[in-house]
Specification:
Belongs to the short-chain dehydrogenases/reductases (SDR) family. This is Benzil reductase ((S)-benzoin forming). GO terms for molecular function: oxidoreductase activity. The chain is an alpha/beta fold. The protein has a single domain, classed as Rossmann fold (3-Layer(aba) Sandwich), CATH 3.40.50.720. Helices cover about 40% and strands about 15% of the residues. A 7-stranded parallel β-sheet has the order 3-2-1-4-5-6-7, with helices on both faces. The longest helix has 25 residues. It binds NADP nicotinamide-adenine-dinucleotide phosphate. The site of NADP nicotinamide-adenine-dinucleotide phosphate has 29 residues, from helix 1 and helix 6.
Length: about 250
């Protein structure tokens, strides 16, 4: 059975991915600090296809144990394995020189260190697994473009994108390669966008543009984005290490 491990699955894109996977009959292991109530209520109807792992992914020294717990939930009938590093935060939205350091450190742990360490742990623990296995690191246009006030966010996503590229290239030499890719979902109508709109123009120079996205209905729904990502993952061939941008996938 196709099995999806999804971090940040309590809200936004992660929850939309989880719902879609369950509706399609796949198995899901969902990681976050809290549980989405709508998903929780699906536990009984989905006949053992849904497992929750409670974890704060900023607790960097617990990440290896989190991966051990995830792996312990895998069933023997897994024929395709997907690991989506989706959890993320955008704060602190502040110019460099004014950053709140505690929030900056948390963001670096959640957006960069957690997916990087979990990718490493996943590859280590699935080396002998020779069916299709894919790691997706959820990226952003901010990995490629600079925005004033997003120094922390842009740099964490850029770091993760380079990590993903290196992992993808390395895996090409492996006997049982994992595919490791970045996926940029574009702007979505989630809590993260609410946080972005709550920033003022002094801290975030592009603030007005993001208000316009919401007012003009230009934010995509997480359900739409989830569908595009799942269709991509079910394709037979992917380019290892590639940065897939939703804009290039929408026909
Ligand atoms: N929204 C956009 O426009 C947009 C654009 C480009 C890229 N992205 C990227 O897309 C991904 C999903 O974003 P989203 O908009 O869906 O975000 P969101 O609605 O804010 O959801 C974030 C998810 O991350 C989880 N999370 C936060 N802190 C965590 C922690 N310390 N440990 C474990 N889980 C944690 C949250 O769950 P708990 O609070 O329950 O832990 C939640 O499920 C992110 O990587 C983001 O950078 C978003």
């Amino acid at each position: 059975m196709k099995t999806f491990i999804i971090t940040g699955a309590s809200n936004g894109l992660g929850a939309a991915l989880a719902k879609l996977c369950l509706d399609r009959g796949f198995r899901c292991i969902l990681v976050a600090r809290t549980i989405n109530q709508e998903l929780y209520h699906k536990t009984t109807q989905t006949s053992g296809r849904l497992t929750f792992v409670s974890a704060d992914l900023t607790e960097t020294n617990q990440l290896e144990s989190v991966m051990d717990e995830i792996i312990s939930h895998l069933k023997n009938d897994v024929d395709e394995l997907y690991f989506i590093n989706n959890a993320g935060m955008v704060e602190p939205i502040k110019r460099i020189g004014e950053l709140d350091i505690d929030t900056f450190v948390l963001q670096a742990k959640l957006n960069y260190l957690a997916p990087a360490i979990l990718t490493d742990s996943f590859i280590k623990r699935t080396q002998g697994y020779n069916n299709k296995k894919i790691v997706v690191n959820i990226s952003s246009g901010a990995a490629k473009n600079h925005y004033e006030g997003w120094g922390a966010y842009c740099s964490s996503k850029a770091g993760l994108e380079m990590f993903t590229r290196v992992a993808g290239i390395e895996q090409q030499r492996e006997e049982n390669p994992a595919y490791v890719i970045s996926f940029s979902p574009g702007v979505m109508d989630t809590n993260m966008q609410k946080v972005i709109r709550s920033a003022n123009e002094t801290d975030f120079a592009d603030s007005a543009r993001f208000h316009t996205y919401k007012e003009k209905g230009m934010l995509r729904s997480p359900e739409f984005v989830a569908n595009i990502l799942i269709e991509l993952l079910l394709e037979p061939e992917l380019d290892n290490g590639k940065f897939y941008d939703i804009k290039e996938l929408i026909k």
